[in-house]
Specification:
The protein has two domains: 134 residues, Glycogen Phosphorylase B (Rossmann fold), CATH 3.40.50; 156 residues, Glycogen Phosphorylase B (Rossmann fold). Helix 3 links the parallel strand 4 and strand 5. It is an alpha/beta fold. Helix content is 32%, strand content 18%. A six-stranded parallel β-sheet has the order 3-2-1-4-5-6, with helices on both faces. The chain has a six-stranded parallel β-sheet with strand order 9-8-7-10-11-12, sandwiched between helices.
Length: 318
């Protein structure tokens, strides 16, 4: 009689970028023989892109906190990306410790739960993608470390079909992390003069914010992740803030240029599949305890010309 198939659950943080990254763990668990379910509110919209192979990737919405303990009892292994949320605390109290593995992007003794041999604390100068690949390889006892998360574009799409098309995503859920839209607009003008086709993208709720740009640029709003991923996959490049689109583009092997506020943080959170460029304020700009010029005024510290030059350099590589 064959042994029953082991079951595993993976709980990323709320961000779609986090879910894409934690699919690295799902993919390698499946390769190790697990029946894997990823719990996330949105990533199921890309399920057709994770359907390759004999073991289909399963997706489920987050259970309520009340239903969470009973929902995870069937699993032999649960991997959680720590986000200090009530959900994280409920999972910790509901799952036997030998069946729980916590991935910590950062760890503070006394603030977080005591570490277990199944847990992983990420190294801050490696990307999230690399850290997750190392963590799941260690957990499974694999010698090979791979960032592959099983994402494959449908065959009817053509990779970088519109090579001069530049996807620009000037928004994110965290306004303080967004380089000004006005600067993206000026960047678009420079790209047009160079023969590129900048296209501003957003979700349907964000469309009113970018409406005025539609007089000079194409502005595309996508109803779901699959439509967005299809558009990115057939584009040449992607420029934007630290957000899900950077991770998705990198995962699709589209060259990325990310504009962000903190060089130290971006060593961990940069798109880590296909490595592109990251622009942050220069480290020599003062950022002392009582003089946080770099942190407070970072948007003024990154010029359009600097971003444009970095993009042109990127096009020479890809």
């Amino acid at each position: 009689m064959q042994n029953p198939e082991k079951k595993a659950a993976v709980f990323p943080s709320r961000g779609i970028g986090d879910a894409i990254l934690m699919m690295i763990a799902c993919h390698h668990l499946k390769k190790a023989g697990y029946d894997v379910t990823l719990y996330h509110p949105t990533l199921e919209e890309l399920k057709n892109w994770f359907e390759s192979g004999s073991k289909k990737q399963k997706f489920a919405k987050w259970p309520s906190l009340e239903d969470l303990p009973s929902s995870v009892q069937e699993y032999d292994l649960v991997i959680v990306q720590n986000d200090n949320s009530p959900r994280m605390k409920m999972l910790y109290s509901s799952i036997p410790r030998n069946k729980l593995s916590i991935f910590y992007p950062s760890y503070v003794q006394g603030k977080h739960f005591p570490l277990d041999p199944n847990d992983s604390v990420f190294v801050s100068d490696k990307s999230m993608a690399e850290n997750i690949a190392i963590a799941v390889a260690s957990l499974l006892g694999n010698k090979e470390v791979s960032k592959d998360n099983g994402l494959y574009a449908p065959h009817q799409l053509t990779y970088r079909k519109e090579k001069n098309r530049v996807v620009i995503h000037p928004l994110s859920n965290e306004v303080e992390k967004n380089w000004p839209v006005e600067k993206y607009e000026k960047l678009g003008q420079a790209l047009q003069k160079k023969g590129f086709v900048p296209v501003f993208v957003c979700n349907e709720n964000e469309l009113p914010i970018l409406h005025r740009l539609s007089q000079n640029y194409p502005v595309e709003a996508f109803p779901n992740l699959e439509a967005l991923a299809s558009f990115i996959y057939e584009s040449g490049y992607m420029i934007g803030n630290d957000s899900l689109i950077g991770h998705l583009a990198s995962n699709l092997a589209i060259p990325t240029l990310i504009i962000a506020n903190d060089s130290k943080r971006m060593k961990l959170w940069r798109p880590g599949f296909l490595l592109g460029e990251v622009i942050t304020p220069y480290d020599w700009i003062p950022n002392f305890k009582f003089l946080r010029i770099r942190s407070v005024y970072w948007k003024h510290c990154i010029s359009v010309s600097r971003v444009y030059k970095a993009f042109i350099n990127l096009t020479k590589i890809f």
